[in-house]
Amino acid sequence: MSVELRGLRKNYGRAAALDDVSLTIRDGEFLALLGPSGSGKTTLLRTLAGLEFADSGEVIINGRPMHGVPARERGIGFVFQHYALFRHMTVARNVAFGLEVLPRGRRPAASAIRSRVQDLLDLMEIGNLGGRYPEQISGGQRQRVALARALAIEPRVLLLDEPFGALDAKVRKSLRVWLRQLHDRMGLTSIFVTHDQAEAMEMADRIAVLRGGRIVQVDAPETLYAEPVDSFVHEFMGESEKLQCSVIDGLAVIDGLPDAAFATDCPKGPAIALIRPHEVEVLPGPGPVRVESVHVNGPMRRLRLMLAGQVLEVLKPEDAWLPVAGETCNVDLARARIYPVERAAR
Amino acid sequence: MSEAFSQGLPVATRERPATRLVLTLFTVVLLVLFLLLPLAVVFTEALSHGLGKIRDSLTDPEAITSIELTLLVAAISVPLNSVCGVAAAWCIGRFQFPGRSLLITLIELPFSVSPVISGLVWVLLFGANGWFGPMLDRAGLRIIFAVPGLVLATVLVTFPFVARTLIPLMQEQGASEEEAAITLGAGLWQMFWRVTLPNIRWGLLYGVLLCNARAMGEFGAVAVVSGHIRGQTMTMPLQVEALFNDYDWVGAFTIAGLLSLLALVTLAVKAALEYRIGERSGALL
Question: CATH number of B50-277: 2.40.10.10, 3.40.430.10, 1.10.3720.10, 3.10.50.40?
């Protein structure tokens, strides 16, 4: 099922939670909504589910406008951040809930419900937990119960709000892979919210980066990492080193380093150059760059360089040429991306 | 160092044995003096002239009326306050709306206002010289010095109990389970019966018990609207006072004993509930 958002806006008092959000999610796609807290990603997800309502704009699911369609009739599976399992029901009854509340005509027989529930629990690899209560199982198991419960109603779209937020790193990692496989196998259209860029990059087909209620960029993970549209996305998608520079006549010059100039279409004036630590080329000196320190960082070496009063951290493989602390060297910043200086952050 | 640290917490509570003994004795003496002794007096006085006298007191038509009236008033006001209390707690626990904190204050008002005033407002509204008094008189309706007045006064005094117990509970539980029910296709009633109510059931029962205890024992507010018409508008607490003023010691203490028994049963049920809730890792209160 495709999902389309058109010009969604929502204000809480004077603050905009959603600011003209338009986005199309293709049938079968796994999309991540990525952004810092307060960027509007959860509001967007809840608006899709019909738990909140936009002030204006449209949600269209499979060609059908959702305006006036209540949450209970949208057929959307929603996995809540802390799972929201019914604490007074067993795991099996939790999963059966969506079937048991169906109107009499459409409700399967009790025995059919029971076998459906067991099938789902088996699919989630927790077939033996049906008789337990939510407080008697682990966080990862609760996550699977929440998924089974959401999938029981055969949703057209699956929405997940920070699905791994409450889990420890190890469980999180194995569940990521498992959830992605489940999505592919069941042919779902899934949208999940996260503030963890590594998680988004590992799982999603495309990532929509949100900031202040706006979608800043929607792209495949590799594009997003390689070609961020602005400094916010650049810094959010991975470790970024920042150098002050100025743009004059289509050329960006690093402050205090007049020899390093790059062509840019950035407007004239102060700007910043962003570069990932592994993208910096370090060349033998003597040169204008002083090596402050060299540290071991797993199979990499982390260099702390000073150039014209600005600090630059660099990651190099241990078998690359490496300077020693105290000597001078040259750097090649050709892979840096130049962005205009942002006006005071909102 | 590590030993001192591991024992660090209990140190503050490890008083000398003598101090502990004195404190315990003091508490026990207070308990006996102010709680057990009065309760014992009630029952011994009631029994002082034998069981026959007690039977006579209990079969007295006035006594029977007072018992019936007390049960009737409780039977109306407790369910009413339970329904209203759940509705109010749900609104306050789930939604942000203008006037929300005002509503909380209003719900708590009966706790801070003297019960006499809670009775008096109804007299001022519906009494013979009250705002609506003449109108009701013409329609032939009687509220003050009649059963409706007793109910109104009791409802007002006991309103906060259920709502006040449930508001923090519902706020703490949050709305996500209800939202989950909705996204799974449940209607509003299905959500309420299957998710909301089961989650608050122990808290609700606790509130209802407190509400019931107060509804049956209320004196001040009821005294103002009752008019003390014997055999007609006397609830049990009022009957106790009337019998006492008549020097009918056995009668007064018999009714008082019955009221105390009702209170003790309520207390026992409450204690059993707390035990049960405590066993479930204090999840609900």
Answer: 1.10.3720.10
Q: What distance in Å separates residue A201's CA from the closest CA in chain B?
A: 28
Provide the pLDDT for residue B24: 92
DSSP of B212-255: HHHHHH--HHHHHHHTT-TTTS--HHHHHHHHHHTT-HHHHHHH
Q: How much is the pLDDT for B248?
A: 86
A86/B195 touch (CB, cutoff 8 Å), yes or no? yes
- The full length of chain B comes to 285
**DSSP one-letter code for B130:** S
| Cβ-based contacts of A78 with chain B (< 8 Å) | 179-180, 183
Specify the DSSP element, H or E, that contains B201: helix B197-217
Region A83-107 average pLDDT: 93
Partner-chain contact B181 A102, CB within 8 Å: no
Binary contact (A102, B182; C-beta < 8 A): no
What is the rounded average pLDDT of the residues A32-50? Answer: 92
C-alpha distances out from residue A297 to A239, A293, A301, A302, A328, Å: 14, 12, 5, 6, 21
Q: Which residue has the higher pLDDT, A219 or A254?
A: A219
Q: Parse chain B into domains and list their residue ranges.
A: 1-47, 50-277
Whether B7 shows a pLDDT value over 60: the answer reads: no
Residue-wise pLDDT tens digits, A309-330 = 889 999 999 888 889 898 999 8
10 Å CB burial of residue A173 (0-12, 13-18, 19+) is: middle
Helix, strand, coil percent values for chain B (each to nearest 5): 80, 0, 20
> Stretch B56-85: mean pLDDT, rounded?
92
